[in-house]
Amino acid sequence: MKKMIVNLSSREKRMAVLENEVLRKIEIMPPHQRSIVGNVYLGKVTKVLPGMDAVFIDYGAEKNGFLHRDEIPAYQLSKRDGESPINHYIRQGEKLLVQVSRDETGTKGAKLTGLIEFSTDSLVYIHGIDYVGVSKKFKNERLQKHWREKALEYKHEDEGLIVRTSMENESEPVFLDTLNSMRQLYKDMERKAATLKAPALLYEKDTFLEMLITEMDTTTSGQLFIDDFEAYQELRKSIQASGKDWDLSYESGPKNIFSERNLDNQVEKALKKVVWLDNGSYLIFEETEAFTVIDVNSGKFTGKVEKEATLFAVNAAAAKEVARQLRLRNISGIILIDFINMEKAEHKLEIINLVKKEAARDEMRVKVVGFTELGILQVTRKRTSPALSETMLVPCPICNGNGKIESAETVAFRLERELFEHRKTDDEAVWVELSRSVAEVLLGEKESYRSTLEELIAKKLFISYVPGPINTYSIRRFGSCEEIERSVK
Q1: What helix, strand, coil percent values describe the chain, rounded to 5?
Q2: Which residues lie across from 127 on neighbouring strands?
Q3: Residues 196 and 47 in one domain
Q4: What is the pLDDT of residue 82?
């Protein structure tokens, strides 16, 4: 059974997905790293790259976004005249509406599209392309043909429509209402853009809530536990509309919903370089800017059969865990897996098939290229968002970037969650010793969040500072204001 644990009680949003009680996926979204995929901006072309058939767009972020020729409406609506250079469709200094299709990752700017897309559970609307698609999951071929004809009848020349499965038994007025509402949303953005200077934000999407709904849509039933009542109500509405059999539970207890299920420890394990397997073998993860290397080691596993069979057993167990870890850690791009060398070609083929089978659970596109002459398996995984390590870790100031420590945000929000767990105790105050960088995140700019935090934990907060560059904290004691004041002094 699929379970989702959603932690929204603090500013850092978190989601865990378990399948048969095994952790398969973690999504963590700190406020400063909130995904902007789906947001629409008024952008300005800063540079045209004819050799790459692309342009750079200033849409208001620190790094300019990247827009390929195929994502430009003028190109799509010209019936893909591939002979014309890119500056035939777009010029430097030109303003246009762009939507983020991939967040910034590492040194790369966001990937953008000029084909603006909005979607509901029954219809996808794309402005800037002439296209009609109907879900292949329709049970009735006659209705599939009917909705294709209706989409062609009502769409404009510069619009693309994709009719989803849940539209199959809906009425024509429902289809038109849905289409017109999304069409109106695009027109409203155009009007807003006409009054603004580029760059400017035109439309902001709640990507986290949408991600939860998308995750729930991958199966017809499951359980979801969440600690935010408003989000709980929104998800209930979505489930009722979809007709899926999900059991939703709102949990308001003082204990953190992640720590109560031992998920915090599992998240910490997902950041470690070494992953031990049940049979005594282990994996070593090395993430770099260019690619990720995973080394398979037999460790304590010796086996009870011949050498080749023992090596295959180690590699088979590693293949399953590697596929799980890629999804769990959200590792993308080029991945090189150094399995223990096997002599038999059929064993290598079995490992390839095993990785493919396990990767089929992944919602990201995973391609298994094959083994190199050196016995390294080449894999690629589509990148749409930062890896878990990019979200939770920052370069270590002590080792000049050769290692990583937890960010001030990660430590501050852990402290915040720990304080929340004590909000129903009778103590008047709490004394916390922490580094200044963690305090700045915890309390906000000029301690603007202090009063809110004290109200939420129902305690006066006393702070003392720990010197040094490491992001850390320690809850020294709880008690009355008088007791704590004496202790701090």
Answers
A1: 35, 30, 35
A2: 116, 159
A3: yes
A4: 58
In a shared domain, residues 47 and 192 = yes
253-295: per-residue pLDDT in tens?
888 999 999 999 999 999 999 999 988 899 999 998 889 999 9
Write the pLDDT tens digit of every residue in 230-243. 999 989 988 887 77
| Structural domain boundaries enclosing 22 | 2-34+220-262
Give domain status of residue 391, yes or no.
Answer: no
What is the pTM assigned to this prediction?
Answer: 0.73
- Classify 389 as helix, strand or coil: helix
**Residue 385 to residue 11: CA distance in whole angstroms:** 19
Segments in 292-435 forming alpha helices (H): 307-329, 345-359, 388-392, 408-420
Q: How many structural domains are present in the chain? A: 4
The answer to whether residue 159 sits within a structural domain is yes
Tell me the three state secondary structure of residue 475.
strand
- 388 three-state secondary structure: helix
Q: Would you say residue 357 lies in a domain?
A: yes
Q: Are both 174 and 49 inside the same structural domain?
A: yes
The pair of three-digit structure tokens given for residue 484, joined into one six-digit string? 């704590």
pLDDT in tens, 19-29: 988 999 999 98
In the chain, pLDDT over 90 holds for what percent of residues? 69
Single residue among 381, 407, 425 that ends a domain in this structure: 381
Same domain, 181 and 290: no
Question: Looking at the domain assignment, is residue 211 inside a domain?
Answer: no
Shared domain check, 172 and 154: yes
Are residues 57 and 163 both part of a single domain? yes
Q: Does the pLDDT value for residue 150 go beyond 70?
A: yes
